[in-house]
Specification:
Layout: E1 2-3, H1 6-10, E2 14-20, E3 25-33, E4 39-40, E5 43-46, H2 51-71, E6 77-84, H3 87-90, H4 93-105, E7 110-111, H5 120-126, H6 147-166, E8 175-179, H7 185-194, E9 198-202, H8 206-215, E10 220-221, H9 225-230, E11 235-238, E12 257-258, H10 271-277, E13 281-282, H11 285-288, H12 291-297, H13 305-313, H14 315-329, H15 333-349
Parallel strand pairs: 4-6, 4-7, 5-6, 8-9, 8-11, 9-10, 11-12, 12-13
Antiparallel strand pairs: 1-2, 2-3, 3-6
Helix pairs in contact: 2-15, 6-7, 6-12, 6-13, 6-14, 12-13, 14-15
Length: 357
């Protein structure tokens, strides 16, 4: 386990490389900031083709978590972890417990939770080796599936975007395209259908598509993401992996609003300006998808779902505040969201330097 120079170059406080040959564990834990408190962020289990891809992902994701937690009003910093491998074939109890030992070795600087490729049951296993884990099952004293409030929060952000763009938060009759109907996307579809929206979906997993169709027969199935993205939608909701908005897809985008659950939707800096130039209202991903981290962070205080849901409902007002700041300062919403998060990390984080007894 070694701290690399990457942490200093990227602005991270710490980057830890973890390997256990006996179990096949290869993981990276990145702590971007502890200015507001211990770093909290999920563990992604994914078959990266190159170790450098895993490193790039964990650095971007952990920074996003710091900003997400700051905007959500949590007294938590930002971190993330990735386990390199195919969870369908390499995930074992021994590997997860080995990973838990590495999390424990950080002494509480980093709290982990679920992400792509990891689930509540995995957090219960990891918790057998470390107390610095959230997103555990209800039976194990945890918050359960964080996808529930993640989807709820994205829906709140979407309603706020609708109000800013069209003068009403009501999504009834609006056409929303959801790309990716996995853990979060299929729950978001449920909120949209209940709100009376017209919903079109796509996913690379046929099983995921069939599950949504079975639950909501009126939902339209679209062949692929490229087709969905070009459709004349009111809202496009990226809910799969990151990088959905790039130099190729933004010029083809047919929606007036982008608001989805996926992390790191902007492929690179400058995409937010391209969206602005096209008149597309972008709800920053780390702002609207904070419901999940709000849910699992509530475990640290003795989990209460209704309390966590009330806090996640605040994403509506925070999203409106970001749009209003962007308008007042003449910047894209992503820039405004960054400024609000950085302001809180600086102003509140400074207080931690004041010694108390």
């Amino acid at each position: 386990m070694t701290d690399g120079v990457f942490g200093r170059e990227s602005g991270h406080e710490q980057v830890v490389f973890c390997q256990d040959q006996a179990t096949g564990l290869k993981a990276i834990i990145a702590v971007y900031s502890t200015a507001l408190g211990p770093a909290l962020g999920g563990t992604r289990f994914y078959p990266y083709s190159r170790d450098s891809d895993a490193l790039d992902d964990v650095l971007a994701l952990s920074k996003g978590m710091a900003y997400k937690n700051a905007l959500a009003g949590l007294d938590l910093g930002g971190g993330k972890a990735v386990i390199i491998g195919d969870p369908a074939t390499t995930k074992t109890e021994a590997l997860l417990r080995a990973y838990g030992r590495f999390v424990q070795s950080l002494g509480g600087r980093y709290y982990t939770a679920c992400d792509v490729g990891t689930y509540v049951a995995d957090m219960d296993v990891i918790a057998r080796e470390t107390r610095f884990v959230t997103g555990r099952s209800r039976d194990d004293g945890g918050a359960g599936d964080s996808s529930v409030l993640t989807a709820f929060g994205v829906f709140q952000g979407m309603c706020a975007a609708a109000e800013f763009r069209w003068g009403s938060p009501d999504l009834a009759g609006r056409h929303v395209g959801v790309s990716g109907v996995g853990k979060v996307g299929h729950l978001l579809v449920g909120h949209l259908v209940e709100a009376g929206a017209r919903v079109s979906v796509t996913d690379v997993s046929q099983a995921a598509v069939e599950r949504v169709k079975a639950a909501h027969p009126a939902v339209e199935i679209v062949e692929d993401n490229a087709t969905l993205l070009r459709m004349p939608l009111d809202v496009f909701a990226p809910c799969a992996l990151g990088g959905a908005l790039n130099d190729t897809t933004v010029p083809e985008l047919g929606a007036e609003i982008v608001c989805g659950a996926a992390n790191n939707q902007l492929a690179h800096p400058g995409i937010e300006k391209s969206l602005e130039d096209r008149g597309v209202l972008y709800a920053p991903d780390y702002l609207v998808n904070a419901g999940g981290v709000i849910q699992v962070s509530d475990e640290l205080h003795g989990f209460d779902f209704e309390r966590a849901k009330r806090k996640a409902a605040g994403i509506f007002e925070t999203t409106k505040a970001v749009f209003e700041l962007a308008k007042a300062e003449g910047v894209p919403p992503a820039t405004a969201a960054d400024r609000l998060a950085e302001r809180r990390m600086s102003e509140v984080g400074r207080l931690r330097s004041i010694l108390t007894v």
